[in-house]
Design a protein that fits this description.
The protein is α+β, with helices and mostly antiparallel strands. It contains 3 helices and 8 strands.
Length: 180
């Protein structure tokens, strides 16, 4: 079974890639619904870690194994984060085959790297369009409880998508440079 999102985010791909690798962004993404104890790192590297999960910081939900791999070179213009960990304790530990894959690329409608839509000349007088990000986010899982958990995970994924859209414009931290 799987749940998935395909979203265009109002941020550039490099900012989105930094955000996906940030434990702070993960905590903010799920808050206040879920609390994720991710530690104090700034960016995750290829690693294995186990973190506690709780509902609203009050009701323990178990522990989540996070097993991260990054692929920045297999597909031109696409960066991929893959988590093959999965729930190790708690109700979700009845799921098997946890494979969470998030792919980041430039959104097709965000124009050329210079910011203009394809075919638009520099002297057209139209404002430049900022780079936007295409995020493909898919979680696959199976096991005896997969059917029972599909709808709750789907609902969380929809909420997650709304949170990603609202958070993304704040991820870029590179200031615009002006020619004075």
């Amino acid at each position: 079974m799987h749940v998935q999102l395909k979203l265009v985010l109002d941020t550039d791909p490099s900012a989105a890639w930094r955000a996906l690798r940030s434990p702070t962004v993960m905590r903010e993404l799920y808050a206040p619904l879920l609390s994720v104890g991710t530690g104090g790192e700034t960016l995750w590297s290829n690693k294995v870690d186990e973190v506690p999960l709780s509902f609203a910081g009050v009701l323990p939900l178990g522990r989540q194994l996070i097993t991260l791999e990054y692929d920045e070179s297999s597909h031109a213009g696409v960066t991929i984060l893959r988590d093959t960990g999965g729930p190790s304790t708690g109700p979700l530990s009845a799921l098997r085959g946890w494979n969470h894959r998030m792919a980041i690329s430039r959104a097709p409608d965000s124009g050329k790297p210079g910011g203009r839509p394809a075919g638009q000349h520099e002297d057209s007088g139209l404002p430049e369009q900022p780079l936007r990000t295409l995020l493909r986010d898919r979680l696959t899982f199976h096991g005896p409880a997969a059917g029972a958990f599909w709808y709750p995970l789907w609902a969380i994924w929809q909420w997650r998508g709304a949170r990603l859209r609202s958070m993304a414009p704040n991820w870029a931290f590179d200031p615009e440079l002006r020619a004075d």
